[in-house]
Amino acid sequence: MQHGPAVRRRKLGEELRALRDRTGLTSGEAARIAGWHQSKISRIETGRSGVKPEDIRLLLDVYAKVVSPEQRALLEALSASAAGPAAGGGEAGRGRQWWHDYRGLLPQEYRDFISLEASARSARTVELSVVPGLLQTPEYARAVTRAALGGLPEPKVDALVDVRLARQSVLRADPPLELSAVLDEAVLRRQIGGPGVMAAQLRHLGQVARLPQVRLQVLPFSVGGHLGLTGPFVIFSFPNIADLDVVVLDHLTSSLYLERKEDLEAYSAAFRTIQAHALPPQDSSDLISSLADDA
What we know:
The chain is an alpha/beta fold. It is built from 13 helices and 6 strands. This is Helix-turn-helix domain-containing protein.
């Protein structure tokens, strides 16, 4: 479990090392062909530095005899998410993204998360405590931010709410992010922001649940214990390249990223099990509407 860019750099390095081994080249020979110093190859293969887009293309040209078109697409996509700003990747490599304007406010881990969310094809999430950020109303987002970050000056609260709302643009993109969310019933009953704020949030959930790109289900109290009790998580999947899928686990002071095949399989299986125990989408919508009327 590592922070986003670091684990991506390491995965990229492992793939490039495997390709070099298949060519029969030493790191020094590969560096000489690329016109680099051998230490640069070592830093890349050990994940200690990112790779500029032009560098990854040059390396793949060096290893061309053992690289399939599919592998090339995968590694170029992986390098885009693995490289840090100093290496020409990350925010700098993708061009100026909207969250760049909040760089002084948002920690790198949150910017990494937003970047993954913005480039993903789909997201599967389980939430136990609060409505997912992509589905929050402004008033609810403000109440959650104040509760989670007590004592924060109002201008910073305003900015964080703006970020939360800006993230929701992925649901209106072309194509939109496909979101499958399972909410514990506690999410719907916890009075965040007071009855008025909660009623508006529940009505909003009922509206977004009707979007074709959103599948919203509620895990009722009657289920009892379930796999999701170990904590909330998000699984991001990316266009055409399953090997880039990633699980994100949020903690109080950091986010952890899981990309090993066995971890992805375990969390995907857990999501399917939790989803199977949840109410069907229509029954979930009916429950949400009932709670909104009673709020």
